Amino acid sequence: MMMDTKRINRFFLLATGPLLGLVLALLIGGAGIAWTTDVEGLTQETNIPEITSSIGKELAQAEEAAKLTASSLKETAELYHKTTETMASIKKTAAYTANRPEVIYNKRITAKLGTPYQTIQSDNIRIELYKINPGTYKGYAMKVKLKSPDAMKMTLGKDVFGGAETTLQAAKRYGAVAGINAGGFADSDGKRYPMSTTVLDGNYLSGFQPTYKDLFFVGMNPSGQLIGGKFKQKEELDKLQPLFGATFVPILLNNGVKVTIPDKWKKSPLRAPRTVIGNYKDDQLLILVIDGRDEKGSSGATLEEVQAKLFNFGVQDAYNLDGGGSSSLVVNGKVVNKPSDGQLRPVPTHFLFFK
Fold this sequence. Notes:
The protein folds into two domains: 2-110, no CATH class; 117-353, no CATH class. It is 35% helix and 27% strand. By secondary structure, it is α+β, with helices and mostly antiparallel strands. It has an eight-stranded antiparallel beta sheet, covered by helices on one side. Strands 6-22-7-20-21 form a five-stranded antiparallel beta sheet, with helices on one face. A three-stranded antiparallel beta sheet has the order 13-12-14, with no helix packed on it. Residues 174-354 form the Phosphodiester glycosidase domain.
């Protein structure tokens, strides 16, 4: 804006230069008045009428030049304003056109989810909550657009390796607007440790452990993109620049393709409460939290049902997080799902979301 003002000031200075020069010439050079006197200093004759006439003509020319200059300045100012308005319109149109594919894609995936019953919006994040009830199970879908990488973090229970707390406790302690449980865990000596490879703030908490059998790692990179998979070498995972992440079993979708679910996880348990995280092509996240009475296999959803639902929603990559009594969905300081233990289970890792 400052540069535009300087350009306009220079233009007006150049445009009024000739008029100022003419006025200065008249003041410095005078009007050519000539006086003749005799030796006694008495006035003999003057040419005042001719001088007055000459000055009048010059002033008339100056006035005409001023009118032309003022008219030219007015036209130029109007042209400048019109150009500025046109450029602003072009910029607005370009931004709208650039965002159009994203808007169309978002409408397409949202149409499959239905109508959100709750929306949270800020400069950092947009969260939309949906209810899912295909008939065989009930649950919730949370679609998340991270406008800033800082809008999502992973935390440890009580900020201690080996500690545990509920997702509600973690969300309140950190001031998060939403949260879910993350990876699996193992209990030892009265402590609850995250399962296998776990990364926090870019650091491997217990070193890198090669994924084996059905285990996978899932987390986020510094750009706020979901990353995950099976990694035999630390260098393979390092290339993805994990900022944080946890481990569990199994992978459900890879690049929009259903991954074969091992028979063990199809049946053990058959049905259960579930927590699943996935992403769309535009890096939006979709989280499913399915309710169930317990972990005995008589209620909740099968992994195949969850996999099919995510596939139909258009999700690209999807990872099954810890389920059963660990499944947790907290939004705005309230527990949304119905924990199968009757209350939230303390777990060692949480994915939290911030406004």
